[in-house]
Write a structure and sequence with these properties.
42% helix; CBS-domain; alpha+beta; two-stranded antiparallel ribbon
Length: 160
């Protein structure tokens, strides 16, 4: 199955110069836990999560309306393409320990967002429809397990 068959196409984005208040507002209004950060040309330059917003407020000691997305966003962004397989995307998620991947075109413009939740919902939908999902529950469980390894134990688990 291809990423484009499962991804969310209704993705809200923000700019690095936007306030953390704006990022939090987008997450609240769109019931999502992250927002891709784009440059003025719409190319992906980062990701900001609800956790990033909270930790920035705590570590920087400022009001969200005074703190910039660029001060809290992840700059090393893993992504996938619409024509990648879901298995390829899950492999990226496992390696990077992320629950969500921006789906980008060749110029790194956002065309969607793929989350582990999207994959799990598709597995459940397929099971209900046919009893034999194209996507496997074992792969979803393996991806979740890899994502959830605490940082201090990651090297030991990967080496084993």
């Amino acid at each position: 199955m291809k990423v484009e068959q499962v991804m969310n196409r209704n993705v809200k984005t923000c700019l690095a110069n936007d306030t953390l208040n704006r990022a939090a507002q987008l997450m609240w209004e769109n019931d999502c836990g992250c927002v891709p950060v784009v440059d003025d040309d719409g190319r992906t330059v980062g990701m900001i999560t609800d956790r990033d917003v909270c930790m920035a407020a705590y570590t920087q000691g400022g009001m969200l309306s005074h703190l910039r997305v660029g001060s809290a966003m992840a700059r090393e962004v893993r992504s996938c393409r619409p024509m990648d397989t879901v298995a390829e995307a899950e492999s990226i998620m496992r390696a990077a320990q992320v629950r969500r991947l921006p789906v980008v075109d060749a110029e790194r413009h956002i065309v969607g967002l793929l989350s582990l939740n999207d994959i799990a919902r598709e597995v459940a939908r397929e099971r209900g429809a046919s009893g034999k999902p194209e996507l496997g529950t074992e792969e979803v469980a393996e991806t979740l397990g890899a994502i959830c390894i605490p940082r201090e134990h990651r090297e030991l688990s990967v080496a084993a």
